[in-house]
Amino acid sequence: MASDIEIAQQFTPKAINAVSDALNIKAEHVLPYGRDIAKISLDALTTPSTKKGQLILVSATTPTPSGEGKTTTTIGLGQAFTQLNESVCMALREPSLGPCLGMKGGATGGGYSQIMPSDKINLHFTGDFHAITSANNLLSATIDNHIYQGNLLNIDPRQITWRRVMDMNDRSLRKIVLGLGGKMQGIPREGGFDITAASEIMAILCLANNNQDLKIRLERTLVGYTYDAKPVYVKELEIAGAMMALLRDAMQPNLVQSFEGTPAFVHGGPFANIAHGCNSVIATRMAMHHADWAITEAGFGFDLGAEKFFDIKCRIAQLDPDAVVLVTTIRALKMHGGKDKNDLTAEDLSAVAKGLENLDKHIESVKLFNKHPVVALNRFASDTDIEIALVKARCDEHGVSFAESTHHADGGKGAIDLAKAVMASVEKNKPFTPLYQLNDSVVDKVRKVSRAMYGATDVAFSKQAEKDLKHVEKLGLTHLPICIAKAPSSLSDDPTLHGRPRDFEVTVSAIQINAGAGFLVVLTGNIMRMPGLPKKPAASKMKLLANGVIDGLE
User: Fold this and answer.
1) Of 551, 533, 523, nearest to 168 (Cα)?
2) Burial code of 480-493, b = ≥16 C-beta within 10 A, e = fewer?
């Protein structure tokens, strides 16, 4: 089979206005970025709509190095709805440049289920990440300048919580010292960088309902404390207006299309292991407003992205999925069953059977939200019928739907059975119930999520986390939902524990206050908000060919 880039080169795009016309978006609301990308004005949400706007959430079992193909499945499913002549639109996250050039590679799907133009989307796209980075770092520069210029707010440099960001994996910038070189260079203090996908500005943009809501969230963002321990917010620095100016165009969702022409809004890109892992509320609403079926995804496994989708995004935006898809693969189940990542192609019924414990837990987790999952088996050429029969039998035991999908090789036609199963499952889903109530204590919120989603026996808080809790209580922010930052490769907070770990505690190392976004970031284990590059990064394989094609972008 041809490589992703070779397949992408076969693509013949529809003009972007044809894609917007298919969604009945008025021409005055379409802001073209070349021939095959457009920004869509927020005013498009104010036009009357006759669409059903049924929302489908795609999630997955615990990720493995073999790759489960959640985004690819989401795109293939969208194309299958198009094949069935259904009104459909996807809402997906934007890829982060750091992982594209690091270890993960691109995030636009694969095979014949890609969103296009994949090279532009994976790299600079429409500049949304640049805008978010700029707004974040304007605030950082303003904080340090305020201190340098006399510090009227009495900000304590030792208690600044706001960090700089960049959209690149660079471990050397995690912890740095600022302001060296003499008194003309600023006030020396400790600082550091996070990756842009982990920035609170990213979360704020993705959760804001409109520009007015964006302003409110920016102004209430906590940046640090004074010498007498009083909180300092963005509003006091009088910088929210400039930040909004930088974010003006980034607030507008990006419209593109799949390899088969299915419309897709691609907007916002928070990671699910260190952030809330969902595309923007605006893009999701835009898809629901303009189509009968809106298909979206949440990052990593159900325990991370999907839990945050329900407990943060759905709660804040008053959304409720009509169907849930749970993606898995035979290769992933073998890894959860103890097989080495380099030994996944040979038939191994014992490993598959053992690995099904991971699928069991995720099915149980979906049901905790009152949803009836459709298990989508992303089929690979090495999978055998008898291995697949084991998975189907387990789904039958749980009383949930099952469908094979070959969308990577066959595009939308390969996901038609999955699309039909998803449509049939809608009537089996009920309104979701959150895992915790907002008036629960922070400790109880963490405990409820850890027990329900991860299977933990209990949680433990480090001394730093206990200190952070006191800050949360003092500021009156215990009512906020929680965003648990956890290793994605395990249900536990230990990335080396695969399958379905049991009899473990989750250790909370720290709690960060994202008052602007409207949640508390609960850090567990050794989770980092700035990734590093691998020994041989994906960037080493990339090159620009004489004809302008980017080769090696996977």
Assistant:
1) 533
2) bbbbbbbbbbbbbb
Q: Cα(357)–Cα(355) distance, rounded to whole angstroms?
A: 5
What stretches of 391-481 adopt beta strand conformation (E)?
A: 401-405, 458-461
How far apart CA 189 and CA 462 sit, in angstroms, is 25
pTM above 0.90, yes or no: yes
We find that the CATH architecture of domain 132-247 is 2-Layer Sandwich (3.30)
| Boundaries of every domain in the chain | 4-126+252-428, 132-247, 442-524
Q: What pLDDT was estimated at residue 239?
A: 97
Q: Which tokens is 200 given?
A: 């609170």
Domain 4-126+252-428 CATH assignment equals 3.20.20.60? no
pLDDT at 156: 98
Contacts of 58 (CB under 8 A, 6+ apart): 70, 73, 74, 77, 295, 296, 297, 298, 324, 325, 327, 376
Determine how β-strand 293-297 pairs with β-strand 88-92. parallel
SS (H, E, C) 133-176: HHHHHHHHHHHHHHHHCCCCCCEEEEEECCCEEECCCCHHHCCE
* pLDDT tens digit sequence for 204-244: 999 999 999 999 999 999 999 999 999 999 999 999 999 99
Our CA angle for 415, 421, 427, nearest 5°, is 145
Percent of the chain predicted with pLDDT > 70 = 100
Lowest mean pLDDT across 5-14, 129-138, 325-334, 528-537? 5-14
374's tokens: 């459709």
CATH 3.40.50.720 is the classification of domain 442-524: no
From the centroid of its chain, how far is CA 328? 18
Does the pLDDT of residue 1 top 90, yes or no? no
Task: Give the torsion through C-alpha atoms of 517, 519, 524, 529, to 10 deg.
Answer: 0
How confident is the model over 482-510, as pLDDT tens digits?
A: 999 999 999 999 999 999 999 999 999 99
Give DSSP secondary structure letters for 22-87. Answer: HTT--GGGEEESSSS-EEE-GGGGGS------EEEEEEESS--TT---HHHHHHHHHHHHHHTT--
- Per the structure block, which two tokens stand in for 82? 């198009």
For β-strands 155-160 and 113-116, DSSP reports them as unpaired
Give the confidence band of 143 by pLDDT, cuts at 50, 70, 90.
very high
